[in-house]
Design brief:
The chain has 182 residues and is an alpha+beta fold. A 6-stranded mixed β-sheet has the order 1-4-3-2-8-7. The mean pLDDT is 83.
Amino acid sequence: GKRVRPAVVGAFVLGGLGLALLTVVLLGSGRLFQQRMRFVLYFSSDVNGLRVGAPVKFRGVEIGSVVRIMLNLGNSMQSARENPADIRIPVVIEINQHQILSHGVEAHLDDPVEVRRLIDDGLRGQLAVESILTGLLYVDLEMYPNTPAHYFLGSNAPYPEIPTVPTTLEQAQMTAQKIMAQ
């Protein structure tokens, strides 16, 4: 005997569909089971064109994305005005550990010793142009074995720091400035 209310049945069906859709999205995206590690890179150059969500690539393989872009003025606004080289742009990236294999097994980027070894071997970050038409940038990780590792905060960084190198254009500009100064 009790009469079934169509509104209650409809709400129950919609709630079930919502839960099913949420499950498909969470499980289908794969992000639920991915182990992601965060790192910070400090750029001293203009990052115009770099966006949150921009890819992080290693030799063309997308291994992560940019999750945060900030501004670090150094110790104070006064020091930033006196020495513009103190201004750094901290870029926090997230790398999907399951995308990287080392000797056939997943690399352990959560191990500080392994990360330090990669940096000692020449791992550096650099800004690269993804599209000339739009001017969009991405973070390019590459091995530069003969470059010194310059840290901005080092062990005081909120995440492990990956050193950066200037872009090819910036290197050419610095060389031209040195030649003009001589």
